[in-house]
Design brief:
The complex is a heterodimer of chains A (about 500) and B (about 625). With about 500 residues, chain A is mainly α. Helix content of chain A is about 75%, strand content about 5%. A two-stranded antiparallel ribbon of chain A has the order 1-2. Chain B has a two-stranded antiparallel ribbon. The longest helix of chain B has about 50 residues. Chain B contains 26 helices and two strands. The chains are: A mainly alpha (about 500), B mainly alpha (about 625).
Amino acid sequence: MTQFPILTLLILLPLLSAICLIPLKKREESAKYVALGLTLVELALACWTWSAAGGHPASGAPPGFFLFEDFAWIDTLGIRFTLGMDGISLLMVIMTVLLTLICLLVSWRTIHERTALHYMLLLVMESSILGVFLSLDLFLFYLFWEAMIVPMFFLIGIWGHGRNLYSAVKFFVFTLSGSLLMLLAIIGIYLIHGRQSGIYTFNLTALIGTSLDPAVGLWLYAAFLLGFAIKFPLVPLHTWLPDAHTDAPTAGSIDLAGLLLKTGAYGLLRFGYPLFPEASRTLTPLLIGMAVCGILYASWIAFAQKDMKRLVAYSSVGHMGFVALGIAAWTPLALSGAVMQMVSHGVTTSALFALVGMLAARTKTLEISAYGGLWSKVPVLSCFFLLFAMASAGLPGLNNFVGEFLILLGSYKVQQTATILAFLGLIMALVYTVRLVQELLFQEERRPLALTDATSLEILTLAILALSVLFIGLHPGPLLDMLALPVNILTGGTP
Amino acid sequence: MKTALELIILLPFLGAIGNILLGRFLPRRVVEITACSVIWGSFFAALYALDTYSAPAVVEVGAWLTSFDLKVPISFCLDPLALSLCLMITFVCGLIHLYSIGYMRDDPGHVRFFALLNLFVGAMLVLVLAENLPLLYLGWEGVGFCSYALIGFWYKEVKNATAGRKAFIVTRIGDIGLAIAIVWIFKVFGTLSITEVNRMGQLVPMEVITALGLLLLLAAMGKSAQAPLMVWLPDAMAGPTPVSAQIHAATMVTAGVYLLMRMFPLIGVSAVVTGAIAVTGAFTAFYAATCALAERDLKRILAYSTISQIGFMMLAVGCGAITAATFHLIVHAFFKALLFLGAGCIITALHHEQDIFRMGGLRRALPGVFWPFLAGALCLAGVPPTGGFFSKDSILTAVWAKGGMFYGALYLVAMFAVFLTAVYTFRMLFVVFGDRLAANSLEPDLHGPVKPLPGIMKIILIPLALLGLVSGIFNLPAYLGNGLLQSFLAPLNAEGGHLSHATELGLQSVAAIVALSGLAVAWWYFGRQRRAMRIARAAQPPTGVTAFLQAGWYVDNLYSLLFIRPYKRLSSILWERIDEGVIDDSLDRMAVQLGRTGQGLGRWGSGRVSAYMLSLACGATLMVGWFAWVVL
């Protein structure tokens, strides 16, 4: 390895920053600035990797990966510290770093207890999520996958509100039970591959070629799918999400919706489909069924919500259904769309959670029926709210449209009925969105609330997100170009 | 050419962005001037484009969505149809922007108003000029959003906000038709460029074209407020009147007709599609005209008349008469904008009174509004020789020329709708402007004397009135010379039967007689003496047919019963019973059960020696037993 290990640094830097915060436990102001500074450095690093995109592929890297690092770790078991970055990972990494920055900014004035710990947990989350998006070794992937749950558990448990302990435990049990089965499947494919070739390894590239007995493949894939589907979340495995979202602090909701859910989708397209091409084809109808049910069912339920955070949470389930549909269709367009939708959903939903958090921080209530007439009281916040709500409803020119449109274009070729049903979901998405907008922004004030308009820090936070919304919506070209090569490689070998 | 096109599109957007970001910090006058000047700049750019126009041109401005086999650049297509609509849109919207300066004089939300108005024009121009379907969809949804935000402009009232929401959702139902058509077209043709798709129609089976045509018709029904998706437009009148004039009369609501005209080379070959378009148009023209007969809100009467007139345009498209449809679209934009702006003057002068039965004596009080309004009414009723007469007649002629039982029946329906149009138009005119009644139970309720109007509001009516009256010259019937639009748009029309000049003249006389008899009937019912009686009767709650028509045939109630209430109720049931009740609860219970089992098992290992001894004994027995079973 002559090359500078940038990917390792990307993962380690947030972890190191978290460690730096330990001695600053008592000096919260400086802890905040240290965390922010190091996150900005991390952002610069991530942007630097962007400049490497499209360059010469790294030596020894699987096709499509332009950055690749491979270190010996536990050789006796065939476990290596293998990291790689292709277009898909790059997008995910940039999104992760950006949203972590947003998380820090929204917590800036709202977290007053154990501030340093809060920031530490956010940074540890960032590190483990980056690990998930970058690892090419199944064992390493699993390690990061499990590591994500821990900081989230504490974020909900310590800074949450409402029934936060219940929600934290529920979240923990749900995701853990899914991933334990996945661990079994990982060991299973490791053993099968080892017996076949004599080489025991967790390396993804090596394992992809494993020939599996159809029945065995199906069971192994089903275990993977279960783990991913819980994270996604796909109906009917979604019930942890509304609770976790509602009771989490704002930064926790953003991390959860913006990043954690994406790991499920990412795992499915990076590991699930390539490892088990046969089995995934067999179970495609199941995935499509869950996706379409998710879109329609969650969008329908979102309409009835009385708590605005819960409404956004259900809308999340609906939007992730589109991602699942795009992956299930597995055509180049649909898959590009799915990745775009992951990023777009990360941006818009985070923005909506941030806004809801800002309102709740002022009024101490999440009940929709308490609000009304915000437009005249907080015009700047309202303007942003309308923008993100419309983006979430899929207005063209804004970000969600790009992903949804590509998914639907791609999936219509192979799955007509499911796609047409998904279109109905677009109507339902608009229905709950305009309901929320009307009850919050329009009409007369319903309860006297002490409200002040956005502070400059909040405007900065929201402006970053708004610019991303417009950039992806109006000029997605660079991002789509980035996805072209890896998506082509992924879809090349499978149906 | 490219620069002109870019200017046409960019200027309104620049105005909108500038006002959104900086409007709050600028003096009122600057905001107004910016908003108006960008639209007029756009109009002059369009004029320049007309001047230098030679042949249809496609201009690619930049990249938008490109991925694998999908290529969707930001590209615009300038052809006669798009160009004539661009000129109309920028001109009419420019006038309405000027009018808005007067209308919104005292409103504190002027920045939001002008920003949205500009944004709307930009989106509308994108819709009209787009060369590919996703870009058209962008404009399509963009105007939908602006319409939503502007209907609910006075958002504090629940009624207004709800009307905006209704418009957005109902049109979105139609939009899904367009979206499905787009993905289907991409699947079949592999491209989304409108010009290319229109050329490749013969490559695919007729059933596919029929299905695509019906989906596009669904889209048009939503946007152009055609049956059965027409319910949103009357409610949309909750917006400020300039918005009603610009969006819900002159431009946006004709987008559906425009879409069908744009895609006509593709879908026009299917007889099922053209038949469905024609039936939709004729039925809607009739339906809305009947509703307008009984309506008593001035703006809602005009809204119904818009629905009805767009029905005529749809009918023309269904007959393949693109020229006639475009002609009526443009002329309608002039006179309908005029009528709405006139109504805005009346409503402002009467302190926001909209009930026609509470007006009266306005001919004397507002002569500057009366005369232009009369011109607009003559156009709407199709009285010769106004522009409205010629344009509506060209549609009727086209229907007649198609021949056959089917189109013959549609001709009769359309003729009846023409008659009704004349009746309700002059009913409105006589009731609103007729002499003030001394012993009127309702009129004295007006909240004070007639309010003076800003000059600009009255001045704007004059050019529109003149245009409405003389716009017939844009496309004179064949016996009077060659039509301007006809030669401009000639390549777009489907093959239709040609009529002799004598037949054409005969048809026109029939149309003129029908319109004039409508006028006579209106006079009979609402003229001098009868008017007082009608007004007195209007104080009572409506009964029978009147109530049925006033409620818009109870379509709203039907939809509420069939769709809205079940949707709401099921939503709660799904959430509380299914999601929380069944799925979540069963998982919770499983967790509790697991916990209990764990506790039970825990008791086993709690350190009680007797339990250990028992386990040991059981285990040993089992082992010995198994061993014995295997060995023996």
